[in-house]
Amino acid sequence: MQYMTLEFCIMWYRVFLVLTVLLNCFHGQLSSQSKYKIVSGGFYNLENLFDTEDDTLINDEEFLPDGARAWTTERYEEKLANMAYVISQIGVEDVKAGLSFLGVSEIENRRVLEDLVKQASIAGRNYQIIHYDSPDGRGVDVGLLYNPSHFIPMYSRPIPLFNYEGDKRRFTRDVLYVKGMLEEDTLHILVNHWPSRGGGPATVEYRNNGARLCRSVIDSVLLVDPKAKVLVMGDLNDDPVDESIKKYLRAVRDVEDVRSTGVYNPYEALFQKGLGSNAYRDTWSLFDQIILTQSLTEKKQSGYAFFKAQVFSAPFLVQSSGAYKGYPFRTFSGDSYQGGYSDHFPSFIYLIKKI
């Protein structure tokens, strides 16, 4: 009887330990939910969001009703609805209010953004616009949408990216710089669309110059405030392991190493796991990235800190059949209208803070 009693006690002690662990885990989950606030921000290449009116100052002829793409009012309106629906869905499983800010590229002008934010799926967020015309030959620009209930801009300006072919300037998109307040946090946001790879190896230096420019801005901001929170986002037309990002922006893969350069790229680890945001000839690239300065990686602080990075590749964004099955479901394949979304998936991050 004494032996049985000891065995019985040991069994119940083990049960007690298991229950205690489970209760502590459950309590920890509740505590984390009640002690942290989470917001999201992202970047999306909108794949040639042009209006249907001829702008004689840019090369928009293919995106006119009588142009090569037969870009009609109906197609434009469908494109707006599609883009807005994607934006409405990014990250809402964890942040019901949606994105606090979103960098965008491949937009023709401010008007297309004004039409975009009026779409029913996102109109309730009251997104505001920061946009400047770029000298890009095709007329496409970058911009920033922001929810004024979350983010309040203080200052913005375009920063020109100078590239040359011999003595002739090669015009491309400016870098958009925005300084603003995310609640009590000051954020510095750089929205990019670096030169494309069309033209082969000769274009590498153009993207290296984009990285040099962003690094120069980061260093200038950090010189004034060593704890500054800077986000570099965009379609960089390079992967996280390419020299523009590794050598010239000096972004590191592992957050433990960020002190060495002050710049952390969470998308390098995702890329090395096989994730991509765009595909070409059956090869995935991860051109769409969001890169952070060290202060955003520090968990023990009163303000917002980086939590995690993702590529938004919901099933409705994926081509379901045909030669490009599995690719991003895009608006055009060549000049053939597909009625999809974009040839890029959006990228986004979560930021959290203690409350």
Give an account of the 3D structure.
With 355 residues, this protein is an alpha+beta fold. The chain has a single domain, classed as Endonuclease/exonuclease/phosphatase (Deoxyribonuclease I, Chain A). 26% of the residues lie in helices and 28% in strands. The strands form five sheets. The protein has a six-stranded mixed β-sheet. Strand 1, helix 2 and strand 2 form a beta-alpha-beta unit. About 5% of the residues have low confidence.
Please tag this protein with its features.
six-stranded mixed β-sheet; 6 helices; Deoxyribonuclease I, Chain A; alpha+beta; 355 residues
Brief write-up:
The chain is of the alpha+beta class and 355 residues long. The chain has six helices and 18 strands. The strands form five sheets. The chain has a six-stranded mixed sheet with strand order 3-4-2-1-18-15. The chain has a six-stranded mixed sheet with strand order 5-8-9-10-14-11, with helices on one face. Strands 6-7 form a two-stranded antiparallel sheet.
The CATH topology is given as: Deoxyribonuclease I, Chain A
CATH superfamily: Endonuclease/exonuclease/phosphatase
Number of helices: 6
CA gyration radius, whole angstroms: 23 Å
Question: Uncertain runs with pLDDT below 50, 5 residues or more?
Answer: 15-23, 25-32
Distance between the termini: 55 Å
Q: Can you lay out the helices and strands and say which pair or pack?
A:
Blueprint: H1 2-35, E1 36-49, H2 73-89, E2 101-107, H3 110-117, E3 128-131, E4 141-146, E5 151-159, E6 164-165, E7 168-169, E8 175-182, E9 185-193, H4 204-224, E10 229-235, H5 243-248, E11 263-264, H6 266-272, E12 278-280, E13 283-285, E14 288-293, E15 305-311, E16 332-333, E17 336-337, E18 347-354
Parallel strand pairs: 1-2, 9-10
Antiparallel strand pairs: 1-18, 2-4, 3-4, 5-8, 6-7, 8-9, 10-14, 11-14, 12-13, 15-18, 16-17
